[in-house]
Write a structure and sequence with these properties.
alpha+beta, Histone Acetyltransferase, domain 1, Aminopeptidase, Arc Repressor Mutant, subunit A, 3 domains, six-stranded mixed β-sheet, three-stranded mixed β-sheet, 43% helix, globular
Length: 402
Amino acid sequence: MAATLVSNILEEYKCDANSSVHIKLVENEKDVFNKEKAFHPNMSHQIFGDSEVIFGYKNLEVQLYYHAGSLLTYLGIKYSAAVDKLSPVDIKPDDVISLVKKVLAPGHFSNLDQFLSKFPEEDKFTPMGELIETFIVSEETYQVYKAGISTPRFKSYHERLQTFVLWYIDAASFLDMDDSKWDFFLMFKKSSEVGITRFSIAGYTAVYRYYAYPDMKRPRISQFLILPTFQKKGLGAKLLLAVDNHYTKDKKVLDMTVEDPVNDFLRLRDYVDVLRCRSLPVFKPNYLCKGFSKEMVDQARRKLKVNQHQCRRVYEILRLGATNLNDPEEHRKYRLEIKKRLNAPFQKEKADLKKLQRVLTADEYAAAVANISQREQLNILEENYRETIAEYKRILERVAAS
């Protein structure tokens, strides 16, 4: 009975880590105390474990504040109660500060007054690297800078910046900052007030320049993040376009790739590449209806650094836009072409099984073939087709709205 009572009491001291962590990008003292400035992580398992639970507190608030420009950092916690001796065994709360400190850059503050006292100096922050793009979104000015490990001030800045990936990119890890093949593209909001110019970090991406035979390079986007307070403004597309435009000018770049893209980034990339490719002659409606071609791959790669796999996706999206789905014959031709591609993995699996037939017993081969029935394959294929078309329609709607 007593053990059950203690267990119930302990449950009250469990906090959801994602909602307990309050992150802020602050420009002044007013921002520090403005609750509406706070945003939360998408994930916290890389700091607090798979359960994403913090034990030992009631009404916990983990305060992680960054100067919006320099990313000078403050870490503190608030709570209404902490677990005490509720059983014969001394129960201690999780050491939240130590867990978060492990991923923060050196030089962060645990005293809020000391953090605030540094603002006059931090307000003088200016971006590092080469300015490659300036644009205006909703009457706000944004700039994109390119930097590398040899760029003055950048390595120490990146130590602060990279902590965001642990909260927002699943399975992310810190990069090797001794490798000169890394390129970084930083997006800042630029604002002026009473003669003072301020820069606030809005997002960034890290790109690794891989080798491509015989003397080319193939940049691969590794990390891509727009911070929560700057999302839903079209800034992701602007940053990706700036990166694409930069490498498109480089004659030594073969094409662009992406490392393990999540669905949100796939949508963003599709949207940006459709915008870019639709101006090429081979992606005009009269060419699209003839089917996917080598000329499409060659032009997309040569002029825009779009790789073959992504070129195929762009073709399928634009072909959908050029297809009259109310025309049975046009719709049938488009559906068959998409399903043929979607069915390719099943056909490869069958071919592989055929090769193995010589080394498998009759029973083993029959079991392998029966693993997915013909009807199941058709159902999976139809479902994949419907999901693909729905996704493509969303891309086309966004393109039309732009």
